[in-house]
Every structure is written in C-alpha cells, then in structure tokens.
Amino acid sequence: MTEGTKRRILSGMRPTGKLHLGNYYGALQNWLRLQEEYECFYFVADWHALTTEYDDPGPLGGYVMEMAMDWLAAGLDPERSTLFVQSAIPEHTELFLIFGMFTPVPWLERNPTYKDQMRELAHKELATYGFLGYPVLQAADILMYKAHGVPVGVDQVPHVEMTREIARRFNHLYRPIFPEPEALLAEVPKLTGIDGRKMSKSYNNCIYLSDPPEVVTQKVRQMVTDVGRPYRRDPGEPDRCLAFPFHRLNLPAEKIEEIVTACRSAELGCVDCKNLLAEALVANLAPIYEKRRYYEEHPEAVREVLLEGNRRAREMARRTMREVREAIGFKLEFQLWA
Ligand code: TRP
C-alpha cells in the first residue's frame, strides 16, 4: 500500500503494566477494528509514562514488552499495522522541542486533563516542565505521522484538540505541512473491576488478558453483582448488576435475553449466572491467552516486530523532520543524520 492511499490512524498507550479487560474493550478492540480499514500506527508511549514515573522508571522497559505481547495476542497484526516504541524514535523529541517554541504556556495550564491528573496524583511532584508539556509531546507523536484519526478515550480529547491548534499554528507560522487530526471516540462499555470500583491496576481488581482460565473463572466468581438482591430468592435486576456488562460483551443475544428474564424472575441465581459468564469469557479469551503464551516463550519474535515497526516509523519520522526543518529554514547541509 503506498503512502496516502489510505487514511492514517495513530494512537499510543502508556506502558503501565499488563492490559486488563477495561483496556481491551475500551481501546484495543477499537484499534483492532481500525486496522481492517486504515493504515495504522500504534506505539508504546514510554516517554509519556516517564512524565509521571520518572522517579521509578525501572519497570517501564519490561512493561513495553508486556504491552507488545498483549497487543499481538489480541490480534494487532504487524503486517498491516506499524507497532513501535516511542523512545526508539528520537525525531519525536526534536518535534516536541520545536512545537514548544510556539505553544503558549496558558494553553497547557488550562488543559482539563492536566488539572485532573494533578489532582489525582497529588502525592507526586508533577509541577514539572515535562508533565506540563505532555500534550506537546503528544502533538509531536500525532503530527509526525500526519495522522488523520486518533482513537482515544474522552479524557484525551483535549490533547487532540490542542494538537489541532499546534498544527494550525505551525502551518500558519511556516508552511502548511500538517493535517488537523480528529479524535475518534468509540463507544466504550461501562465496565467496573471485580469489586465494583473502576477497573484499575492500583485497586487490584482487574481481570488481565494474561490471566490463565482458572484465574479468570475465580475472579468472575468474586464479581460484585446486584447489591439490591441480597437473597437468592429475591428477583434481580440486570441493569443494576455490575457483572452484566461483561455478559453483554461475551454471550450471544438470545442467551442474554434468557438471562435477563431468569434473573428478574429469580429463577437464576447470581452464582450460576456468573458461572455462565466465566465459561463464555474464558472461551473468548482462550485464543488470546494461547497466543500470549506463544509470545512469552518467543520474546525474540516480539522484539523483531518492534524493531521492524521502529524502522518503518523512523523512516516516516525522518521524512517529516526534513520537511519541518526546511519549512522553518534550517539548512539541511549541516545535519549529519538528515
Ligand atoms: N496520552 C495517551 C494516554 O494516556 C497516550 C498517548 C501518547 C497518545 N501519545 C499519544 C494517544 C498520541 C494518542 C496519540 O492514553
């Protein structure tokens, strides 16, 4: 496929650990869908992770591999999508620096995601230059590959918005070379962790793509269901049940209807109902689990995918940076690597 014939998609994830079902249904499935139709670039945003993990970056390297394994196991296809690692493409830092020259600090201070994160991570020293500049780095990631669509969650929409403003500003100041990307919001199912709180590594309430079947089954059995149904004989309400969104994602529609009826009439109890879910979920995750096992045993295959992705990404990054330097007026003849 030659460049420009397909619209380009780019997105990244911070390597903060193994992927859980929240990440899978919330983001990864959308990425998988998009790769059917578009030229996709997906990358591990390890520099972005460093903005908050600068005091303990040790695990980041390992998480990069874990993330790549989860991606491949879930079905991201390196033949169709370019899978790469941000920190392997030094051009991102150069573009970040250049964007930093004309991005007004008040844009960054006003950013709602920045303010939320500051509040959420109040225990950390995050009044840093790098953390304030997080969306500028993100703009460099996106514009480097001239992406048209950026699949992200709602919390990231302000960053894509700022990317558009940065693109506009660059195009106006120098020469129009960057398209303005759009955020692609997918419908995200409302999933909670097994204890009913938001599914999050720090709450220890996640089901991971890498969990073996018996662990998945055990976690499903622990799931909080309908708190308005204290006794087995009480009629239940699937709309109140915290496990039910998982049923919807894993069981066929006819089965769902049956369950709804049997729950409301108290024919079906939560224990049996969760067993149905466990069985379906385990079956659906089995191919991912098996594939992941393969990659765990063959880390060299994962490294090879990332190396090839890095090569492809870097080639495009080099090309963009040549255009950028030219647009600004830097003389290429002095540059050893261009
Ligand atoms: N900030 C994103 C997140 O936390 C990760 C990210 C970094 C990203 N660079 C990106 C997402 C570029 C989309 C495009 O989820």
Helix content: 40-55%
- First-to-last CA distance: 25 Å
Total of DSSP H or I helical runs spanning 4+ residues: 14
CATH classification class of the largest domain: Alpha Beta
Number of strands: 5
Query: What class do helices, strands and sheet pairing give?
Result: mainly alpha
Strand adjacency order, main sheet: 1-2-3
From the alpha-carbon coordinates, what is the Rg to the nearest angstrom?
A: 22 Å
At CATH level 3, the topology of the largest domain is Rossmann fold
Q: Any idea how many domains?
A: 2
Q: Looking at the structure, what is the overall shape?
A: elongated
Largest sheet: 3 strands, parallel
Tell me the CATH superfamily of the largest domain. HUPs
Order of helix and strand elements from N to C terminus: EHEHHEHHHHHEHEHHHHH
Mean pLDDT: 95
CATH architecture of the largest domain: 3-Layer(aba) Sandwich
Q: In what range is the share of β-strand residues?
A: 5-15%
Q: In words, what does this structure look like?
A:
The protein is mostly helical. It has two domains: 8-191 and 298-334, 3-Layer(aba) Sandwich (Rossmann fold), CATH 3.40.50.620; 211-294, Tyrosyl-Transfer RNA Synthetase (Orthogonal Bundle). It is built from 14 helices and five strands. It has helices spanning 21-35, 46-53, 60-74, 91-102, 105-110, 112-120, 129-132, 134-144, 157-173, 213-222, 244-250, 253-264, 270-297, 299-328, and strands at 8-13, 39-44, 81-85, 149-151, 182-184. The strands form two sheets. The protein has a three-stranded parallel sheet. α3 (60-74) crosses α14, α8 packs across α9 and α10 runs antiparallel to α13 (270-297). The mean pLDDT is 95. The structure holds tryptophan. Tryptophan (TRP) binds next to β1 and α8. Tryptophan binds next to β1 and α8.
